[in-house]
Amino acid sequence: MNKGNTIFIGENKSFWERNRRSGGYLMKRRGKEIAISVFRALLMFGLCFMIIQPMVNRFAMSFMEENDLYDSTIVVLPRHVTLQNYVDVAALTNFPESMVNTLWISILMSVCQVISTTLVAYGFARFEFPLKKFWFACVVALIIIPPQTIQSALYMTFSKFDILGIFKATTGDTLSIRTSIWPYIMMCLTCMGLKDGLYIYMLRQYFKGVPESLEEAAYVDGCGTMHTFLKIMLPDAVPIIASCFLFSFVWQWTDLFYSRNFLSGYTLYAVQMSTMTTRMGRYYSTSLTDAITVTNGRSLQLISIAVLFCCIPLIILYCFTQRTFVESLAMTGSKE
Asked: What are the protein's UniProt keywords (predicted)?
């Protein structure tokens, strides 16, 4: 004992002395720990390099003039720095308008999807109703089957939209709402939006892992079903709901299928980016009638800059929400 603290035998010995007394075991264990740490560091460095290196190359390429693209002596740092490339991409993608439209539409659709899928997932997790297994099989099919298989049906439904023949009986004709935002809102609210089946599955698995005793205690205290869902289940499910919102936002941000089918009346960034190559010749042409041929290197350069514009908001979003996202995955795994 020394000043109230216990000193264990051998604690003040040197590493080599303790290793000698252990018959070399301590040295082997320390070497194994160092080897594992070095291997883990190299593996993490390799994975990070594979992810970051293309972004670094695209960022460096964005400041190059066209002549630098074909100079084999230039690897990363450009010889002639220019910001005109960013101006050209902003003009080709209608940057301010397309980015603002993509932002508010992505947020609106994500909110609609989270509301509808949370209610449906809670119903699958807690209630019994006729053909429950069949309807959940439909949810799984919604994950597996690509939406392109029902593209024609969606086109016909919303180009000649009618509710039980009411519109045709009152106005003499059906409504064409395919190019407005309302078809997509209705699909998101009825769990037929982009990746809705996946969100239902994730939320259902989470709600099934929550102990039923929490709800039973709320019922004993006089809470109804909806009050229990809003006051007990939702606050506990905020991390997984936030993850579903992030997934929905990211997929909607870069979506082309639903955007081209239902949101053609809006200027969206993903759609503008996908059609850049067809408009480059007209943009760089000095004539109003003739288009010039843009080289492949120049096209790839501008597309790379457009991809950077598309990724930057998502990276910023992830930086602010990564804690909630990781927490939701950890909580979901612990409840299984």
From this structure: Sugar transport, Transport
